[in-house]
Write a structure and sequence with these properties.
Elements (H helix, E strand, L loop, with lengths): L4 H20 L5 H5 L2 H13 L7 H13 L3 H16 L14 H11 L4 E7 L4 H14 L7 E7 L2 H10 L3 E6 L13 H13 L11 H17 L4 E5 L4 H8 L5 E3 L4 H16 L2 H11 L23 H7 L1 H5 L18 H13 L3 E5 L2 H13 L5 E5 L4 H10 L2 E5 L3 E2 L4 E2 L4 H13 L6 E7 L6 E2 L2 H11 L4 E5 L17 H12 L2 H14 L9 H6 L11 E6 L1 H4 L7 E7 L2 H16 L6 H38 L1 H6 L1 E2 L2 H4 L17 H10 L3 E2 L3 E5 L7 H13 L5 E2 L3 E5 L6 H24 L36 H7 L6 E4 L1 H9 L11 E2 L15 H8 L6 E2 L7 E4 L5
Parallel strand pairs: 1-2, 1-3, 3-4, 4-5, 7-8, 7-11, 11-13, 13-14
Antiparallel strand pairs: 6-15, 9-10, 12-17, 14-15, 16-18, 18-20, 19-20, 21-24, 22-23
Length: about 900
């Protein structure tokens, strides 16, 4: 597996330190080590990759090679140690030998000892060593003790190298482009990195350039700027030019924050620091800190504020000891004095939400302090009305079903493809979504369809192509609204590959597509195939076969709910709603505000809000690095299981071949990231569904235990390993931005111990007793139907969920029926109707909803569920059944 470049870099320096230390201190096999090819390979790799990092650089690596060739191992070890210490975050070099420190190294050590946050600035230009040294010296001269941050320069000569640098080095937060750069790299790059560079550059076409004789040069600059911005939108781009700077400034403002002449080094320096200060800014967190430090008299609600009811108590003082006094000092009901109201923000919270919208690529962002369940209800209430049809994945989180019930909308359930072998669902194919829209059109009811709601990505890591789904749906109904439940996908906005499949990025690309002349021409051409001269649409087969193009007049109305706390830094229940709605002011702002007021507490938790604010700072400044590391570690885990002889006998990592039917995969790679970033890039650009690499689903049939037992008794109780979801024969492991390499190593160690234990147990078991995996699982049940009293009509699947729900709240209208008795009724031909929601948790989607006919398939599935927590079902009393579903 090609690891990420920065992990390869770290490992190569660590290996050099290990090997050269043995040389320096006289290993028994010193001659073998001195001739070690791995040392030379590490040096060659580092001499390439160090171009893309500030600090020690290629000359430093070459000098180490010279020292090793001369047999001066102790000096080489000293220099290697300085790099390793920086990579580890240390500031004091190990075993320092000052007599060998040169001027450049002294500057490096001074930088390492500086406690201020450090970032790197990419300069794209053909430069000489002396020019690079001069620029670095000028940067050091401009550095002031009052600066909040420090930065260092990375120099690359070509557009290829610029793309390689920002894909490789997450510390780069700004880029200065000088027109003198070349196009192609002269570096010896890995095939994966070369292919990724080509994919990135091919995806972005340069925009319109000014009509001057320098057209070709300007196009090159535009193309590079667009490519860099597409890969890392958080980058600050600057242009440093000479001639015609005034004309360029007017033409290139959209791409570059500022255009400078080369002599404007001070202005550039100040601009770099100011921009990072904008990313670093956390207005609400700063306001809370200021409030906690102020002497305040509390004549308001909240006795716990300022620790008033705690610190003077004899009995609960341990609360402050455990959580710390700052938590209590920051607790308040005030919305003034620098703070703000979540319901009507005008100051710090308003700015914090605007910064979050910038980070996630939204037009508007709203903080939610009681989870994504509430976020979903807010969006539903804002956008749909009673009797509107909402096309919703039946497998989605229960909050969407509850939201539909509350609004009085009618759900038309979409069926995800079942993965019967593993007892969970996949995602909803695009042809099924299109077919349902076409059915509504044929029935003359298309105008009733208001919104499409899908989960991206699913609990099990199956990711849609939102741009394709929205484009093809809008081609049938151009005013559809979309709600993407991205509860488990917040991290995806901060990696160039995963970002493309987020709702906000897809909405932006779709808006740009619809505004292009090329799209308008392609749309007119397709319309000629889809409609005859009289305007009669072609057969459904034609619409299902073609990749439909929306009208240029279609409206982009996209919402995403996000459990920020699930995959990024935020306290529990910290969520966000992101909005990309072209009709926001005209149609949505006022109803959204009312819905937000309806579901949002007037006393929101300020600690949750603070964590959302500071979590946004983190992902803008280091999100790319954290997400790439998260993906790398998950790939390492899957690779370790696949390669370890004992683990692969006991466990099996499920791949795209297991979780996505072949007709929904074009590239055909089982685990694309394991083949390299380029393969993942290509797969995520083309396939209908992909698998989130940070989610590793392990099939455990050969252990002899079910998923719930494996989770609770073996992983958690025995080894303290937490996992979120299991099915009858699978366990889902998830990496996140807080996962470490040590945690992965510990998990692998635990899996090995468990595999040994299971093998020993299996060797002694009675072969006549079947394993749980050998007991046939019933197929996953589809949504049966709404009962006649609640179905809209006999043709379409939507129904009156709210009427059934409220009837189910009437005591005399409901009876409790135990499982066996209900099975007997169904077998005798009865069609009992559910009075409420029945939801196994996790994963949290209803197997039954109010008004749904209960079938034998549903009961068979419920009988074998191994989930301990099932909402809406009482094991002693049974199911809640409507006595007469037709009344």
């Amino acid at each position: 597996m090609p690891s990420s470049t920065w992990r390869m870099r770290s490992d190569a320096w660590e290996y050099l330190r290990f090997a050269v230390k043995r040389l320096a201190y006289g290993s028994d096999d010193i001659e073998t080590l001195a001739a070690d090819g791995e040392i030379q390979r590490s040096l060659r790799s580092l001499e390439t990759v160090e171009m893309y990092w500030a600090g020690f650089g290629q000359r430093y690596v070459a000098s180490i090679g010279d020292l090793l060739a001369a047999g001066d191992y102790r000096t080489a070890l000293d220099r290697i140690g300085r790099v390793v210490n920086r990579l580890r975050g240390d500031t004091v070099p190990e075993e320092p030998r000052d007599e060998f420190i040169e001027e450049q190294e002294r500057a490096e050590l001074a930088t390492d000892a500086d406690p201020r946050p450090r970032f790197e600035v990419l300069i794209v230009d053909e430069t000489t060593p002396s020019e690079r040294d001069a620029t670095r010296a000028e940067g050091l001269r401009l550095r002031a003790s009052a600066d909040d941050f420090i930065y260092e320069f990375v120099f690359v000569p070509s557009a290829d190298d610029a793309v390689a640098a920002i894909l490789t080095n997450p510390n780069i937060l700004a880029c200065v482009v000088r027109p003198g750069f070349s196009e192609r790299t002269r570096q010896r790059l890995s095939r994966d990195l070369r292919e990724t560079i080509d994919l990135a550059r091919a995806e972005v076409a340069p925009g319109q350039a000014p009509s001057r004789s320098s057209l070709a040069s300007v196009q090159r600059v535009l193309g590079l700027a667009d490519t860099l911005a597409a890969i890392r939108p958080e980058l600050d781009l600057y242009l440093m030019a000479g001639a015609h700077i005034e004309d360029l400034a007017g033409a290139l403002t959209r791409r570059f924050r500022r255009v400078f002449r080369r002599e404007d080094q001070l202005e550039l320096h100040l601009s770099l620091l100011r921009r990072v200060s904008h990313l670093y800014d956390t207005p609400f967190f700063s306001a809370i800190q200021h409030h906690a430090r102020r002497p305040v008299g509390v004549f308001h609600a909240l006795p716990v504020a300022r620790g008033g009811s705690v610190v003077s108590s004899k009995w609960i003082r341990d609360l402050a000891d455990f959580y710390g006094l700052n938590l209590l000092l920051a607790e308040t009901s005030a919305t003034s004095g620098g703070l703000d109201s979540l319901l009507a923000p005008v100051r710090t919270l308003k700015k914090a939400q605007e910064l979050a919208a910038r980070a996630y690529g939204a037009k508007h962002t709203f903080f939610v302090t009681n989870g994504t369940s509430t976020a979903n209800k807010i969006v539903h209430q804002a956008l749909v009305a009673p009797n509107d049809v909402v096309m919703v994945d039946r497998n989605c989180h229960k909050s969407h079903h509850h939201a539909v019930m509350l609004t009085g909308a009618r759900p038309a359930y979409l069926e995800a493809y079942p993965l019967n072998d593993f007892a969970f669902y996949g995602a909803v194919p695009i042809d099924q979504i299109k077919q349902l829209l076409l059915d509504y059109r044929a029935a003359g009811r298309l105008e009733e369809v208001r919104m499409v709601t899908l989960t991206n990505c699913t609990f099990d890591g199956i990711v849609y192509d939102p741009e394709r789904v929205m484009a093809e749906c809008l081609a049938i109904k151009p005013d559809l609204v979309f709600l993407w439940d991205e509860a488990w996908f917040a991290f995806a906005a901060f990696h160039p590959v995963t970002r493309r499949r987020t709702a906000m990025a897809a909405a932006k690309r779709l808006e740009q597509r619809l505004g292009s002349a090329a799209h308008a021409a392609a749309y007119r051409e397709q319309q000629a195939r889809l409609f005859d001269a009289e305007g009669t649409p072609a057969a459904d087969e034609v619409w299902l076969t073609e990749r439909l193009l929306p009208s240029p007049e279609a409206r982009i109305r996209v919402y995403a709910s996000q459990s920020t706390h699930k995959t990024l830094t935020a306290l529990r229940q910290g969520s966000m709603i992101h909005v990309y709605d072209q009709d926001w002011v005209r149609d949505a702002e006022e109803p959204f505000t009312e819905a937000y007021m309806t579901h949002t507490s007037t006393s929101p938790n300020y600690q949750i809000l603070t964590s959302l604010d500071i979590g946004r700072r983190q992902v803008e400044l280091e999100g790319f690095e954290l997400v790439q590391r998260q993906l790398d570690l998950a790939t390492s885990l899957s690779q370790a299981i696949a390669r370890h002889p004992l683990l692969r006998r006991t466990f099996r990592v499920l791949t795209a071949h297991d979780l996505i039917p072949a007709e929904h995969r074009e590239t055909g790679r089982p685990m694309p990231l394991r083949d390299g970033l380029a393969t993942m890039w290509q797969t995520w650009a083309t396939d209908e569904f992909v698998i989130d690499p940070s989610r590793i689903t392990i099939e455990i049939s050969r252990t002899g235990v079910d998923g719930d037992t494996f989770k609770h008794e073996h992983l958690m109780d025995r080894y303290g390993i937490q996992v979120n979801k299991t099915s009858r024969n699978t366990v889902l492991f998830m990496t996140n931005i807080g996962t470490s390499r040590s945690a992965i190593a510990y998990l692998i160690e635990v899996l090995v111990k468990l595999a040994e234990r299971f093998e020993e147990v299996q060797a002694q078991r009675d072969p006549e007793i079947p394993l749980p995996a050998e007991i046939p699982m019933p197929p996953l049940p589809n949504f049966s139907a709404f009962a006649p009293g609640y179905a809209t009509d006999s043709v379409r699947p939507d129904g009156d969920l709210r009427a059934a729900f409220f009837r189910g709240q009437q005591r005399g209208a409901v009876e409790h029926v135990r499982h066996d008795e209900l099975r007997t009724r169904v077998a005798s031909g009865a069609a009992p109707v559910s009075a409420g929601f029945v939801t196994p948790y996790p994963p949290g989607f209803p197997v039954l909803v109010p008004g749904q006919v209960i079938t034998a398939e549903v009961l068979d599935f419920m009988a074998v569920l191994d989930t301990r927590e099932i909402h809406g079902y009482d094991a002693l009393r049974g199911y809640r059944i409507l006595r007469d579903a037709t009344e």
